[in-house]
Amino acid sequence: MLNNLPLPFLLAIFAVAGAAVVAASIRATGLADAIADRTRMGEAMAGGLILGAATSLSGVVVSVSAAFSGDASYAFSNAVGGIAAQTLFLAIADLLHRRANLEHSAAEPANLFQAVLLIILLSLPLCAVAGPDVSYLGVHPVSIVLFLAYIAGVRLAGDVKEQPMWRPVRTTDTRRDTPEDPDEADRPVRGVALRFVGLVAVMGAGGLVIAQAGGQFIDRFGLSSSLVGSLITAVVTSLPEFVTTLVAVRRGALQLAVGGIIGGNTFDTLFLVAGDAAYREGSIYHAIEANDIYWLGTGLLMTAVLLAGLILRQREGPARIGIESVLMMGIYLTALTVEVTS
């Protein structure tokens, strides 16, 4: 529907769609915090399951739309590029949390488990890429395994939240997950949930427009699908995670901030499942470019570094942020250089 639009109008529509997604995500952060309190779910689980999935919706729309149009590289790079970008956003948020290292303050067993789950889920597509080119009804078996692993992992993450087998050491800089309003848990959740669903619909519609605009950038400017997917649409559709992370940190909901990024990234692996199902020319894992695999490895490496930071819980590192944040920035900048120069 954007094929014949003049370039200025195309760019304007792209910007408006991105702004709508970001604006909806800002409002969704406060609602997710309220849902966490009223359902007694906790910020880490609400961030990972509710806020993470909601803010990822625009991204999954982009990947499905791209895969359905036959551009496997665009669909794949949008997914794994978004995971890398969102992990970078957590490092940037660490810069703004001046009291102590964000990973130290947001100690939460559920976040550790979700980081481990994310590493597992990112390893499965890597196995699919290196394995035989097989598919059944156009879907690679690894996509089925990835989906089932996600469902099982979410259930186990809930168990970790409800019945943790260990607890982090509390320090003066550790932020406890407690409701800002003691009466919040006694209030009904239905109205908040309905408003949240409305904002999710706005994010999904924005994602559809962003996907079509990104396709136009590929066609009109001759840009590679990997570059557009990993550095343009992935970053734009990841802006909700960036905004919600900054808002959550400012509100003092640190577990929500970290859980939102890790949980959103975990949900983003399902982009590959949806993309594989939408791609009708075989397995999406064997129709991608080398740079797409590099971004997959980048997301995997950044997640491992983040997990190490969550376990280490360094209070203060270089420039008053954790060493893991410095490393994540360096890893992302390296991937950015590889993408632009290749």
TrEMBL record:
Superkingdom to which the source organism belongs: Bacteria
Gene Ontology CC, one term: plasma membrane
Protein name stated in the entry: Cation transporter
Domain Sodium/calcium exchanger membrane region positions: 10-152, 196-337
Entry keyword Chaperone: no
Compartments (UniProt record): Membrane
Keyword line: Membrane, Transmembrane, Transmembrane helix
InterPro entries linked: K/Na/Ca-exchanger (IPR004481), NaCa_Exmemb (IPR004837), NCX_ion-bd_dom_sf (IPR044880)
Topology of this chain in the membrane: Multi-pass membrane protein
Listed Gene3D superfamilies: NCX, central ion-binding region
Molecular-function annotations in GO: calcium channel activity; calcium, potassium:sodium antiporter activity
An annotated GO BP: intracellular calcium ion homeostasis
Lineage of origin: Bacteria, Pseudomonadati, Pseudomonadota, Alphaproteobacteria, Rhodobacterales
Membrane-spanning intervals of the chain: 6-26, 46-68, 74-92, 112-131, 137-157, 196-215, 227-249, 256-273, 293-312, 319-338
Presence of keyword Transmembrane helix: yes
